[in-house]
Design brief:
It contains one helix and five strands; from the N terminus they run E-H-E-E-E-E. The protein is mainly β. The chain has a five-stranded antiparallel β-sheet, covered by helices on one side. Strand 3 and strand 4 form a beta hairpin. The two termini are 25 Å apart.
Length: 100
């Protein structure tokens, strides 16, 4: 699965992180990935774990992000990668479980 997202400078994620030098927090990047994965499924999932997370590039307002996620060998385990202009922003593994 894949998505393209342009970071909106007016997003609350940028407010206070950091004044006069806005940066998209890593947690916002992880939420984008989790949203992509859960939207692609017919069942209801919740994220239960993260592994091998690497943040490699600072994301600024207005950047176009390419988000890619793929199901791993286990049913609810996904590898993911975000890039911007063919440069890796972050990558890792996200684990999900059925919501109860």
């Amino acid at each position: 699965m894949a998505a393209k997202v342009t970071t909106d400078g007016d997003s609350p994620w940028f407010s206070g992180h950091f004044p006069k030098d806005p940066v998209l927090p890593g947690i916002a990047q992880l939420e984008m990935i989790a949203d992509l994965i859960t939207a692609s499924r017919e069942d209801t999932l919740r994220m239960t774990g993260l592994s091998r997370i690497k943040f490699r590039k600072i994301v600024r307002p207005g950047e176009l992000l390419d988000i890619h996620a793929a199901c791993g060998k286990k049913k609810d385990l996904y590898t993911f990668r975000i890039t911007s202009r063919n440069e890796e922003v972050c990558s890792g593994i996200m684990l999900f479980a059925q919501k109860k």
